[in-house]
Amino acid sequence: MGRGRSKAKQTKVARDLKYSNQEMDLERLAKELHGELDSNKKGTHENPYSDEDNLKP
């Protein structure tokens, strides 16, 4: 019986998202979806714990 209030809140949030006027950068979204990286952001996701950096001769 307690689902009514939570469902109403979810419906309100969904409606707000659907009808709000938010500016979207569609080119940036397309690049992100296709996996294209900016040249200034390359290398920012390196693994600091990778074995290659920690190997000693």
Characterization of the model:
By secondary structure, the protein is an all-alpha fold. 53% of the residues lie in helices and 0% in strands. The termini are far apart.
List keywords for this structure.
single chain, 57 residues, mainly alpha, 53% helix, flat
The coarse silhouette is flat
Helical amount: 40-55%
Through-space gap between termini: 66 Å
Question: What's the order of the H and E elements?
Answer: HHH
pLDDT under 50 segments (min length 5)?
none
Hey, roughly how much beta strand do the residues contain? under 5%
Number of helical stretches of at least 4 residues:
3
SSE blueprint and pairings:
Layout (H helix, E strand, L loop, with lengths): L2 H17 L6 H9 L16 H4 L3
The gist of it:
The chain has about 55 residues and is mostly helical.
